[in-house]
Amino acid sequence: MKKLCHRVSIFLAFLLLLTIVVGIAATAHARACNHNWIWLLEVKYETTNSQEHIVSDIKHRECTICGTKDNWTIIGVELESHDKYSRDGGHVVGTQTHKWITLCGKNCGYSETQTYTCSGPPCVNPFSLTPETE
After folding, report:
1. Do residues 74 and 94 share a domain?
2. Could you tell me if residue 51 is left (phi over 0), alpha (psi between -120 and 50 degrees) or otherwise beta?
3. Which residue range forms the structural domain that includes residue 70?
4. Strands (DSSP E) along the chain, which ranges?
5. Is there a single domain that holds both residue 38 and residue 57?
């Protein structure tokens, strides 16, 4: 039993040491790299309400060798109206309803789902129906 406890202790110590060494090696690699920086511009969209979203222009540099990212700078922030489009969400199985989904084309996360009463399937074109109140 003592041998087993001793072996388990040695194994756990080895595992801890291995974890530390791997972490240090990754940091040392980034520091030892002869960085080849490229500047990247990223545009992020974040929905604020049903009418508009925030547009953030973010500039940063990234090393093409090791992947290190550095110098994040927000260039500009502005409000912009959603670029809305709608798509057919299909018949809701087991009910007499049909879904119509409205999304923002800028991929900001905005979505709105309307449910319509229908006699389908097959369903009538949702634009010719009146939305249900929820």
Report:
1. no
2. alpha
3. 33-81
4. 37-47, 52-63, 69-81, 84-92, 97-104, 111-117
5. yes
- pLDDT of the chain, 134 residues: tens digit per residue: 777 666 767 766 666 666 675 555 445 555 789 999 999 998 999 999 999 999 999 999 999 999 898 878 888 889 999 999 999 888 888 888 888 899 999 989 999 999 888 876 677 665 555 556 55
Residue type at position 54: I
What are phi and psi for residue 36, nearest 5 degrees? -120, 95
118: helix, coil or strand? coil
> Which candidate, 80, 88, 75, places its Cα nearest to that of 118?
88
Q: Give me the amino acid identity at 11.
A: F
Clarify whether residues 37 and 69 are in a common domain.
yes
| 27 lies in some domain | no
